[in-house]
Amino acid sequence: MKATYIFRAMSLCALCLVGGLFASCGSDDVDESISVIVDSQTPENDLDRWLKVNFVDRYNIEMRYRWEDNEISMDYILVPVSYENAIRMAKVLKYICFDAFDAVTGGPEFIRNSFPKFVQLVGNPGWNTNNTYTLGTSEGGYKINLWYVNHLGEKYYDSNWQQHDVITSREQLNTNYFHTILHEYAHTFHQRVPYSNEFNQISGTDYLGGSYTSVFSGPDDPQIYVLGFVTAYSAYTANEDFAEVFSTYVTSTVDEFQYILDHANADGRNKILRKLRIVHDYFADNWNLDIDALRDEIQNREAHLEDLDFDDLTI
User: Fold this and answer.
1) Average of pLDDT values for 75-100?
2) Confidence at 244, pLDDT banded by 50, 70, 90
3) Cβ(25)–Cβ(19) below 8 Å
4) Is the pTM of this model over 0.85?
5) For residue 119, which of 100, 104, 97 has the smallest C-alpha distance?
6) In three state form, how does the secondary structure of 156-213 look?
7) At 275, phi and psi to the nearest 5?
C-alpha cells in the first residue's frame, strides 16, 4: 500500500511538472485555510469523566471500552463491551482491586507505579480450539486485555435472579475476572524483578506446556494438586505457575486454599507450600507487599459487594 501511494504521488508530481509547460496545476485555487483532517473524537460522557478522575488522575491508568480494531485481537471472534457493563467493570475493578491495594500499601502510589497503564475491555471470551476460552491477556507489562465483560450484566432467567441483576457472587467474579486480572498483574512484577530460581526447580520437569489441557480431566482434577499445582494452568510453565500461585492465594478464602492443600498428597502439598513461601517472600522483599494482608482486604471487600452501587458514576 505504501509503495502504491508513493508511486501515485510521484506520478501526480510528474503530471504537474509536464502540465506546467502548458498551464498551472491549479495551486492558486487551493484554500489552505481548510484542513483535510477531520477531528473524529467522540463526545465525552459520564463514564469518561468518572474514569478521568478515578483512573487517569489517581493512578495514571487508561481504561478503554470503545471498539478499536488496532487494540483488539484478530485471533478470535470478539464483540464490543456494552456501555453499562463497562461502567460496572470500572466500578468493581476499582473497588476490589485498586482500593484493596491502596488500603494495604497506604495510598495510590503502588498501583500508579506498577499496574499496567492500559486496560482494554471486550464483551465476550475468546474461544480456543481445545474447547477452552481466554478471559484475558497481558502485553509486555503495559496492557491488560480483559474479556467477557458483558457477562457482568447478562440477563438471568433463573427464578432466583431478576433480569437486571449484576453478578455479586465473589466466586463468579474471581473465576471470570479477578483471578485473571491479578494473574496478569503478577507477570508485570517478575518481568521487572525475576523471582528465585528455586521456584522453577520445585516442579522441574513436571511442567506440561500446552498439553496440560489433555492431561487433566478438568479444573478440579485431584492430580493437579498431587503434582504440586494450584490450578491446571499452573502446569503450563514456571512463569504461569508463579502468577497462578499469587492470584489463587489472594482471591481464595482460608478454607478455599486449604481445600487445595487437603486434596494434594504429602509431596504435592509440600511443593505448593514451598512455592507459596517463595511468592510471599518475593513480594515482601522486592515490593514491600504483604500478600496475607492483601488477601484479607480483598476478602473483606468481596463480602460487601452487595453494598456497591455498580451503576453510580457520581464523582
Assistant:
1) 91
2) very high
3) yes
4) no
5) 97
6) CCCCCCCCCCCCCCHHHHHHHHHHHHHHHHHHHHHCCCCCCHHHHHHHHHHCCHHHHH
7) -65, -45
